[in-house]
Fold this sequence. Notes:
The protein is of the alpha+beta class and 172 residues long. It has helices at residues 35-52, 56-63, 138-146, 158-171; strands spanning 14-19, 65-76, 85-95, 99-108, 114-126. A hairpin with a 3-residue loop joins strand 3 (85-95) and strand 4 (99-108).
Amino acid sequence: MFEYDAEKHYPKETESRVVIRFQDCDPLRHLNNAKYFDYFFNAREDQVPKLYGLEVIDLIRKYKAAWVVYNHNISYVKPAMVGEWVRIMSRILWHNENTILVEYYMTDDSKTQLKTVLWSTMRYVTLAEGKSTNHEGAVVDFLEATSLKRDDIWDFSIKERVKQLSMELKKS
Length: 172
């Protein structure tokens, strides 16, 4: 279970290095569009426990609620190719009392070329009724410790975000 520690630094971004598997690619050797979601979600699921000491299932059991995706916005920039090593980053860009926006993005291994950006908007809902509910307890602590809290995120489109991230990668 996540226990906030004021003395600890909580990274705002997760990162994984993965190889694109043959079985996940189309005949042109590009990662299949639907498989990007698997790569993104698996990377975050692997990194959250390592970085934050949190198994999300523990929050689900304790609070009897979970996040449910109600919107994906994805932009495919450059194809990920079979056998290629890539970097997958994720971060909570924004949250309020019952919603989170998670940004995932994929780059080449050297983190110089943006491949894909995904925004997933999720509502926190009760398991029993499937109705929206507010974040509470350790969930709030986790979000406050790990979220970027970018209130300006709604001021631009994913297309503009792709440009921003691409420029950031070129600078580094």
